[in-house]
Amino acid sequence: AQKVTQTQTSISVMEKTTVTMDCVYETQDSSYFLFWYKQTASGEIVFLIRQDSYKKENATVGHYSLNFQKPKSSIGLIITATQIEDSAVYFCAMREGGDSNYQLIWGSGTKLIIKP
Amino acid sequence: NSKVIQTPRYLVKGQGQKAKMRCIPEKGHPVVFWYQQNKNNEFKFLINFQNQEVLQQIDMTEKRFSAECPSNSPCSLEIQSSEAGDSALYLCASSLPGQNTEVFFGKGTRLTVV
Q1: Hey, which of A66, B21, B56, B79 would disulfide with A101, CB 3.0 to 4.6 Å?
Q2: Which of A22-26, A33-37, B51-55 shows the lowest mean pLDDT across its residues?
Q3: Looking at beta carbons, which residues of chain A come within 8 Å of B91?
């Protein structure tokens, strides 16, 4: 069965520091894709970064990077030099390569609070 | 910025009333999703389409919920007889076909059933 778990419900850090948000997933598929999204206070959901299961290199986009630990089925999101506007709820999601219906399996989200 | 357009942003209905919301997917995106997000931020998949064809839908959608994505018209999600438990943020998203493609969301329709 497919499942995505985010155990951290809320994290609070000081501005300009680095934060890591955890996500573990379960899948029987050998090929899968992992996504991170952010939902702002207004409700807007924005795509941040993607990791393909067959790639060994951790994806990086701007001040977002991933810590992909395949043996642990873990895909952590790292935000460096955090800014106040990074305050949001962050969601991890997974799509299996064998799913022709393109379903995304979502985690429950982690609320990130950046303090000035 | 996402180019998925959802209308209306807010919708207030009485119990038993119909509630209809619309979505224009990003140009060139044939895959459209509808999700319901509750107050606990949980995403509940409702239905998705590729072009005008339903790919997958949940049982709840088959009863009071109906959705369509006609060609050359906005996609729509309609609740035939609204219930208090339907109060939620309804999110439309679109993507290119493919398992590795990102999904882009609209700003949502917040439905309140009073």
Answers
A1: B56
A2: B51-55
A3: 45
